[in-house]
Structure to design on (265 residues):
């Protein structure tokens, strides 16, 4: 079995501190072959930088996915466009965007295609169909293992996507809403699935963001660039996912939610 830990959207400094503090215990418990994390909220809640990615690789993360905030920070283009990048962006963005939407990773002699896609429903960005884009990627990945981070807003779109590709994709992990769902399952033809893996972010927040700033959005007080201005320590929600994959059958054998509240020092 291939063992994978997928860490949900890491939000800001407290999220990074939580990963550095808690990941060693998860590694001792699960003995993963690969650790993947969604990094689109890594730097102060919006986007990522070379420094924050390095911080997480030093903490033990092997590879990163992202989402619609991938280009929010200066330097993102250079990071995404690097040869053999450690982070990918949604594949269904225009090819004019920097970076790639999938990458083949080696786990010993086994190939795993990690794919990032962005949903269309309730998403402002204009992207190609994630369904059609995935069909094209499957022509390239052939019969290798495929894990998809589907960064989407609507539960219906995520569930439809997973069922449409059941048996063709090894695992579909929903991200973006920062709220972990309790519907982890293995579909009829072997695809592991969860609607949303959640977040690693400040516990006393609204999906990892400052509560007062989010109230302002709903009360019509305008947007603020400081909506993720949060403490670096305190209680942190730590959401992740553990997967065991049968490399011969190319199906998910086990899917387990990790859901803890930890005190970050």
């Amino acid at each position: 079995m291939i063992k994978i830990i997928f860490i949900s959207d890491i939000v800001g400094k407290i999220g990074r501190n939580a990963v550095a503090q808690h990941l060693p215990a998860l590694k001792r418990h699960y003995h993963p072959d690969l650790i993947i994390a969604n990094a689109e909220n890594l730097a102060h809640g919006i986007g990522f930088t070379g420094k924050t990615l390095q911080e997480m690789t030093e903490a033990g993360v092997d590879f990163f996915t992202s989402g619609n905030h991938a280009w929010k920070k200066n330097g993102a283009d250079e990071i995404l466009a690097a040869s053999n990048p450690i982070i990918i962006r949604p594949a269904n963005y225009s090819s004019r965007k920097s970076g790639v939407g999938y990458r083949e990773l080696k786990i010993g002699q086994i190939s795993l295609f990690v794919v990032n896609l962005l949903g269309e429903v309730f998403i402002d960005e204009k992207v190609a169909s994630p369904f059609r884009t995935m069909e094209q990627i499957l022509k390239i990945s052939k019969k290798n293992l495929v894990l998809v981070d589907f960064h989407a807003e609507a539960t219906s779109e995520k569930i439809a996507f997973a069922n449409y590709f059941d048996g063709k994709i090894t695992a579909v992990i929903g991200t973006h809403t920062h709220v972990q769902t309790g519907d982890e399952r293995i579909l009829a033809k072997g695809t592991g699935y969860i609607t949303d893996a959640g977040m690693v972010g400040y516990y006393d927040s609204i999906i990892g963001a400052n509560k007062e700033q989010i109230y302002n959005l709903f009360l019509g007080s305008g947007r603020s660039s400081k909506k993720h201005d949060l403490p670096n320590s305190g209680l942190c929600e730590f959401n992740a996912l553990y997967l065991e994959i049968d490399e011969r059958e190319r199906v998910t054998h086990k899917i387990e939610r990790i859901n803890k509240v930890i005190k970050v020092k």
User: Anything to note?
Assistant: The helical segments are 12-30, 50-59, 76-80, 130-141, 155-164, 211-218.
